[in-house]
Design a protein that fits this description.
The protein has 424 residues and is α+β, with helices and mostly antiparallel strands. The protein folds into two domains: 241 residues, no CATH class; 123 residues, Structural Genomics Hypothetical 15.5 Kd Protein In mrcA-pckA Intergenic Region, Chain A (Roll). The chain is 25% helix and 16% strand. The protein has a seven-stranded antiparallel β-sheet, with helices on one face. The longest helix has 15 residues. The protein starts with 15 loop residues before the first helix and ends in a 25-residue tail after the last strand.
């Protein structure tokens, strides 16, 4: 029988919830800007926010990029991947993102018990977060392979004692992230600067077992194994039948906490939304000097959107494409695929513009021709409910010349290329 645990609080087993609440309060009050390219917070805000946390990350300066603050990166990923917040283009000049709350979803989360909030965050980390891409830490991918072995060593260790393991974990930030969930404690190696991957890279020295981790980890790895719940990010097939609904993540952990403490979770946020009628107006840009304004009806599909972009830029529709509703392309978690693709899921000819849950100022990536990689940024400028329905997509504005889809070698005849051979 699993060992009983006290209910999670804002300060136990760690300050995870307390620090997340601090993160949310700062975002709502200060409205920091997030870069359109890196999608990261301005450095001055990252520095100020880190200082407010119960256990701020040490050794940072006002010039430290957000990606070097592990706690900030974790909270940022959890808020986005849980659907509690979303990135929106700022409404005036569109030069940066703002992190905006999804009000009804956030209110539901904040009504939960701390234990329920904790499990929502853990599910988001375990199942919806790409540890390498979302947390800007290339080392964390290794966590999928070494975590089971490291966990076995941890649960054999008396709480408070050093975990002795042969697994190389010191450069893997996922070990640090799991310490924020209370699974173990991590001691930083502050005397190992010469081996840092970057000047700000966290390097661990020792791991120490915790009572919470020793009780929680065996249930986690037995009932929510990484092979099923993290498989989307490592290209492995899920062992379960995809036609069956995924079990509720928190259910196996109910036995660990007092009765009634763990009963609620956030609803799935991946189902198609109800059809929202209206005319959807997008600004589709290659860069700041070349863009088109395209209007579509809610009843049009993303395949209709694709053909409208092709016409607007005078392209030959002779390659595959995809839409990333989260502003990303190949790594998008909300990918809508070309119906001509042999292995597509979420085909663009089946998903209606008005049924995809789009919101004003949303940034969508349109990628055409996977070899040449034409990347277009699509900003949803407005959803007009006063206009009559559109029978066909409309190109309403055009700025800049159409790009040359297939530049010929003759276009560069005026440039002479000199090749010099050097004898060995």
């Amino acid at each position: 029988m699993a060992a009983a645990l006290a209910p999670v609080t804002y300060s136990e087993p760690t300050t995870l919830l307390e620090d997340l609440a601090c993160f949310i309060e700062y975002i709502d009050q200060h409205k920091p800007q997030f870069s359109l390219t890196t999608r990261l917070m301005q450095m001055k805000h990252a520095y100020a926010l880190n200082a407010l946390l119960a256990n701020p990350h040490q050794g940072m300066t006002e010039r430290s990029q957000m990606k070097f603050y592990p706690q900030l990166m974790l909270f940022y990923a959890l808020l986005l991947n849980s659907g509690l917040y979303r990135l929106e283009i700022e409404p005036t000049k569109g030069k940066y993102f703002l992190l905006q709350p999804v009000a009804d979803r956030l209110a539901m989360f904040q009504s939960f018990t701390p234990t329920e909030q904790y499990l929502v965050l853990l599910e988001t980390f375990w199942h919806r977060t790409d540890w390498s891409a979302d947390l800007a830490d290339g080392y964390s991918f290794s966590g999928f392979f070494i975590l089971p072995h490291l966990t076995n060593d941890a649960v054999k260790t008396k709480p408070g004692a050093r975990i002795r393991t042969e697994i190389h974990w010191k450069y893997a930030n996922f070990v640090l992230y799991l310490s924020y969930f209370g699974f173990w404690c991590v001691e930083q190696d502050t005397n190992n600067k010469k081996n840092y991957a970057t000047p700000r890279q966290f390097v661990g020295k020792n791991l120490f077992a915790t009572a919470f981790g020793n009780a929680f980890l065996p249930v986690l790895l037995e009932h929510r194994p990484l092979g099923k719940w993290y498989s989307d990010f490592v290209g492995r097939e899920q062992e379960e039948d995809d036609s069956e609904p995924r079990p509720v993540f928190f259910e196996p952990f109910q036995v660990l906490f007092p009765e009634g403490e763990l009963q609620r979770c956030l609803p799935e946020d991946t189902a198609e939304a109800d059809l929202r009628p209206g005319v959807y107006v997008f600004k589709v840009s290659l860069d700041a000097s070349v863009w088109r304004r395209i209007a579509l009806d809610a009843q049009h599909t993303f395949d209709d959107f694709h053909h409208a972009i092709q016409r607007a830029f005078d392209f030959d529709d002779d390659h595959l494409y995809l839409f990333g509703l989260d502003g990303k392309d190949f790594r998008s978690k909300q990918q809508i695929s070309d119906p001509r693709s042999y292995d597509y899921d979420n085909g663009a000819d089946e998903i209606l513009i008005g049924g995809a849950g789009l919101y004003p100022r949303q940034h969508i990536r349109y990628l055409f021709d996977f070899g040449a990689s034409w990347r277009f940024d699509c900003i949803l400028e407005e959803i007009s409910v006063d206009e009559p329905p559109l029978l066909k997509p409309e190109i309403r504005a055009s700025h800049g010349k159409n790009p040359v889809q297939y530049p010929s070698w003759e276009d560069n005849d005026d440039e002479m290329i000199t090749i010099t051979f050097v004898r060995p």
